[in-house]
Each structure stands twice: as structure tokens, then as C-alpha cells.
Design brief:
The chain is mainly α. Helices cover about 80% and strands about 0% of the residues. It contains eleven helices and no strands. The protein has helices at about 1-25, 45-50, 50-85, 90-105, 105-125, 135-160, 160-170, 175-205, 205-210, 220-225, 235-275.
């Protein structure tokens, strides 16, 4: 049974990471072939920094990702704080289920529905172009919000409830207690939610395709290239993005690792005292 479980785990990780490994490998290929590795070279990494179209698309993606993630993090943290303090058990459950709908909804449904909404509002207001950067930003904030809430809400539940009350007893206003006491306690969840929102925004294609007009992000550029051929410099750019996101995810998990280590030490000390 152990051998079977290890084999299943190996297969899962293999199918998850084999495409990424191949992508990274061929980003160092000296030739243009995607099937024959002709030799190690950094040529395509040099080429990507000379590709103005790709760099502009990457810049657009970063502007959109950071803007939408920042707005979603602020709104999501406020929503998580409200949900944490909400007392109605059943109403809270209903709100959580409604909040999770964008995560469960297929991207194609979200993209088409938001496009129709933006076009309807644009025509009602007499706008000449209903789809622009603003509609794209609203769409990205919308699908990022639930992920931020899911990341932040557990940190509120893990926080010691006596800390905000003690701050209020010592003369802090509720707002001061929130920013000075609660925010530092939930900061790992906020950072995780922000990184996740940035990653999802950079990765998104379907919703961006339906809600933008003229604002070209990196996924939209790569999709347009698939009609002819994707050049190997895109492999190099994808590798750089993957490494950057991986480092951000590791950094976001460092506080959790530190907390887990402290908890393990506390448990060991408690067990030694009992022994």
C-alpha cells in the first residue's frame, strides 16, 4: 500500500512539473527547435530583453496584476474582518458561499457575463468604447477577492481575541486597535492573499480576453502568437516569471514555517516537563 501511495504521489508531481521542467530546459536551447536540444545557450534570455512588444505586454500585465491585487487585498481584508466579527451563523454561511462563487464559476462564464455587463452599462451611458483598462481592472479585482478573503479569514480565527480587547482597555479606539494590533497579527495571510492575487492576475487569459479592448497583457500576446508559432524567447520569459513567483510563494510561507517551528518547540518543551 505504501509503495502504491508513493507511486501515485510521484505520478502526480511528474504530470504537474514535467511541462515546467521541459519549458525551463528549452529556454536554454541554442536552437529554435522544441523537440531537439542543440546545446546550452543564454541566447533567448538576451533576445527577450530586446523584444519590445513582449516587454510592453509584461509591463501591462504587472501594472494590472499589482493594481488589481492591491485593491483586492484592501477590500478582501476589510471583508474578512467584517465576516470574522459577524454573529449571524447562517447568514455568515450564506455570505461565505456567495463569496466563493467566483472561485467555483468557470472562467468562460465569468468572462462572458462581465463582458455583457460592461457593454450594457457602456451603451446605457453612451460610451463609445465599453471595454477598456478600467473594465479589465474591475474584472480582475472581482475574481481575486475571494482568494484574498480565504487567505486572510483563517488568520483572524487564529488570532488571540484578547489582544484587541486589551488594546481597547488601554485607550485605543477600535480603528487604532485594528491597525496596531490586528493587522500585524494577520499580515502573513494578507501577504499570501496579495501574492496569490498577483499570480492569478498575471496568469489569467479567458476573463482578460472578454473584458479588455486594446490593453494587451502577456497571456493575450502569447495567445496571438500561437496562431503562427511561439518563439523560444517566450520560454525564457515564462521561466523568469515562474522563478519570480516561486520565490514570492516561498517568502509568503516563511512566517508560517517560523510559527510552526515555534509551535513544535512549545509542544516539545511541554512534553518534556510532563515527562
Amino acid at each position: 500500500m505504501k509503495v502504491l501511495s508513493k507511486l501515485c504521489m510521484f505520478l502526480v508531481f511528474f504530470f504537474l512539473y514535467a511541462p515546467i521542467i521541459v519549458l525551463i530546459l528549452f529556454s536554454f536551447n541554442a536552437g529554435r527547435s522544441t523537440g531537439v536540444f542543440s546545446g546550452f545557450s543564454l541566447y533567448w534570455y538576451k533576445e527577450i530583453f530586446q523584444n519590445r512588444t513582449a516587454l510592453n505586454a509584461l509591463l501591462n500585465s504587472l501594472i494590472l496584476a499589482l493594481s488589481s491585487a492591491g485593491i483586492a487585498t484592501v477590500l478582501g481584508t476589510a471583508a474578512a474582518a467584517g465576516l470574522h466579527k459577524f454573529r449571524g451563523k447562517y447568514t455568515k454561511a450564506v455570505i461565505m458561499n456567495v463569496t466563493n462563487v467566483p472561485m467555483m464559476n468557470p472562467d468562460i462564464v465569468t468572462g462572458v457575463s462581465m463582458m455583457l455587463l460592461f457593454v450594457f452599462i457602456g451603451r446605457a451611458l453612451g460610451a463609445s468604447n465599453s471595454l477598456n483598462f478600467a473594465t479589465l481592472l474591475i474584472a480582475h479585482v472581482t475574481f481575486n477577492l475571494p482568494y484574498v478573503i480565504v487567505s486572510v479569514l483563517p488568520k483572524f480565527k487564529q488570532m488571540d481575541k484578547n489582544l484587541p480587547e486589551a488594546a481597547l482597555d488601554l485607550g485605543c479606539t477600535p480603528l487604532q486597535a485594528f491597525f496596531k494590533i490586528e493587522i500585524p497579527q494577520i499580515m502573513p495571510g494578507i501577504f499570501t492573499g496579495f501574492v496569490m492575487a498577483v499570480t492569478l492576475s498575471i496568469d489569467d487569459f479567458v476573463i482578460s480576453h472578454f473584458t479588455s479592448s486594446g490593453f494587451q497583457t502577456l497571456p493575450l500576446l502569447i495567445y496571438s502568437m500561437t496562431k503562427k508559432t511561439v518563439t523560444p524567447d517566450m520560454y525564457a520569459l515564462s521561466t523568469l516569471i515562474f522563478v519570480t513567483i516561486l520565490l514570492l510563494m516561498l517568502l509568503s510561507n516563511l512566517p508560517s514555517f517560523a510559527d510552526q517551528r515555534k509551535e513544535n518547540k512549545r509542544i516539545r518543551k511541554a512534553s518534556q516537563k510532563k515527562g
